[in-house]
Amino acid sequence: MQKIFKIAFIIIFIGQIAGRWFSSPLLDYIFKPLIMPCLALYLYFSVQGRLSKFIKFIIIGFVFSWLGDIALMLEKFNSQLFLLGLAFFLVAHIFYIIAFNTHIQKPFFQEKPLLFVPLFLYGIGFFYFLYPNLQGFTIPVLLYTIVITAMAIFALNRKNNVSLLSFKLIFRGALFFVLSDSLIALNKFMLQIPYNGLWVMLTYMVAQYLIAEGSKQN
């Protein structure tokens, strides 16, 4: 079954990218709601239904990501849905953080604290860069920046606590997530990025896939 859902994800990935490339709302409405359910089922069957605490928290994160996808997809009909989508993804990242922390016995932070500095600096610097244009979104964006930066930090903290492959896949997924959300923020608050929707969804789908793939390798 996992092969079936992996193939399905490839089809969804191509369909979603095509929708963004051709600016087709129809393709977006068809494929975007399928991304996270497909990855959740792919992960479920990859671990043969053995739901450890780690896998449960990752799948719950996938569910809230799916809710965030739906909210942001419908944002054009109600601008308030942007904040709702932000809230759903914030909760998703909290569950990812909880999941990443489940197997930490010796925090990597204690061994190589300097390696975490770039993540801290990026989170602080990016918020400072956006701040003049945030207006009424200052508090929500600040909270989201803190949480997604923490998600990447906790992903890095897994090093030497899990298999090297699981660490690499999930940490790369976390970095792609930070990139995807940074593109959303830049486009909404700073400047119009050409084909922004395409780059956002490309990096987002890669991020979630790497998290799913790394989770089954744990």
Automatic annotation (TrEMBL):
GO terms for molecular function: hydrolase activity. It comes from the Bacteria. InterPro entries: TMEM86B-like. Pfam families: YhhN. It is a multi-pass membrane protein. Keywords: Membrane, Transmembrane, Transmembrane helix. It is found in: Membrane. One of its GO terms (cellular component) is membrane. The keyword Transmembrane applies. The chain crosses the membrane at residues 7-23, 29-47, 54-74, 80-101, 113-131, 137-157, 169-187, 193-212. Belongs to the TMEM86 family. This is Uncharacterized membrane protein YhhN. The lineage of its organism: Bacteria, Pseudomonadati, Bacteroidota, Cytophagia, Cytophagales.
